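Here is one such protein, fold included:

. . .
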Amino acid sequence: MTAIEELQELFRQHRKPEQVEAMENYMKNNFQFLGLKTDSRRGLFTEWYKKHEPEIKLDFRSIAQLLFEMPYREFHYCGMEVLIKAIKKKYRKEDIHLIEFFLINQSWWDTVDVVAKYLLGGYLQAFPEEIPTVIERFSASDNLWLNRSAIIFQLSYKVNTDFDLLKAECYKHKDSKEFFIQKAIGWALRDYSRFNPEGVRTFVENTDLKPLSKREALRNLP
């Protein structure tokens, strides 16, 4: 039995059919679930990862993608977690294609936000010279989730956030009617307001943002 087959069997043994309907409804019925709640899934995943860590690290990119291509949402989460755990300090230039795969497939806020913050953000910290090319391409895409990722990828950068770039992305998408874009603008600005409150306030007051974006951006400011 391969590592992936063992994880499938582990999840099958612990699935909770009585929890499936509520979990699928919460995700707007975009995905199938096995009924494993977060704590249970993470516990099983951690146990599995420790057991197979040497094997996983030898081919973590392929394993992560295979998990992400499976039908159940719990495996998508595991695919992300495999990649996040194994790829630290091991990014390659070509990993942007795998990261983009994770952003445009099985797409919803629960996976996109994690991938954007930890994988896209980590990749662009490893290769900062790629920021202009990648972010311009994602920002200009017709794909909603690539646009959102271009806005929020700096969430883990904290004081090192490129505020000019963040403002440029917010301004570029300020007229979007998409809820997830308006929310992303507000979230990214609110997060950075911890480090530059007056800069964020000034930008918001002088930019014609959508009400949702403005409200979210200023929520933590007095």
Summary: The mean pLDDT is 98. Residues 3-156 form a domain with the Leucine-rich Repeat Variant fold (CATH 1.25.10.90). The chain has 13 helices and no strands.
